[in-house]
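Work Package 4 report. The design task specified in the project plan requires that, given a folded chain encoded as structure tokens, an amino acid be chosen for each position. We show below one input record used in the internal validation round.
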């Protein structure tokens, strides 16, 4: 009798183990599809040469499928951004926190209201009432530090993670 009991226990354990392996094998494709696509991982970080951007000019690059605005700010733009009382802002952030190197402003160029792309990168673009960026879709105005100052946007344009590798080469992401 004890022989039948141990055989039965073995069959139960073996069946349970095979069921677990089968469920895991069936579930793996569903779990794996939640990982980022290879093209997204490839663009997890980009390096941008900013040596050709003159003071007062901007460059737009694509990172993770979104435009990133890189602006070489003039001393007047920096002074204007730093003169704003932080407590008067809807999303209070000092300019120093948004642009550690004051002459370079790097932000994701997607309006925080409904995901439009604000104007202000080109010389001929309207820059809104505060000299930075303007979202014509719903009327959000951003200042020279890309902080929301007027309109429906709830937050400032986001600052991506970035680092200066050299004085003229920046890695975003």
């Amino acid at each position: 009798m004890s022989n039948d009991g141990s055989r039965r226990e073995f069959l139960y354990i073996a069946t349970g183990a095979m069921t677990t392996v089968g469920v895991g094998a069936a579930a793996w494709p569903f779990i794996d599809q939640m990982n980022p696509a290879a093209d997204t991982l490839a663009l997890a970080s980009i390096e941008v040469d900013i040596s050709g951007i003159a003071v007062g000019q901007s460059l737009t690059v694509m990172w993770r499928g979104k435009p990133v605005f890189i602006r070489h700010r003039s001393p007047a733009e920096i002074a204007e951004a730093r003169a704003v009382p932080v407590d008067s802002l809807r999303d209070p952030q000092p300019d120093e926190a948004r642009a550690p190197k004051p002459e370079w402003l790097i932000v994701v160029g997607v309006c925080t209201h409904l995901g439009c792309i604000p104007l202000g990168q080109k010389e001929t673009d309207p820059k809104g009432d505060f000299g930075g960026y303007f979202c014509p879709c719903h009327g959000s105005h951003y200042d020279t530090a890309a902080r929301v100052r007027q309109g429906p946007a709830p937050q400032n344009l986001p600052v991506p993670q970035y680092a200066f590798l050299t004085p003229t080469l920046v890695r975003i992401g």
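DSSP finds four helices and nine strands in the chain. Validation will be extended to a larger panel in the next phase.
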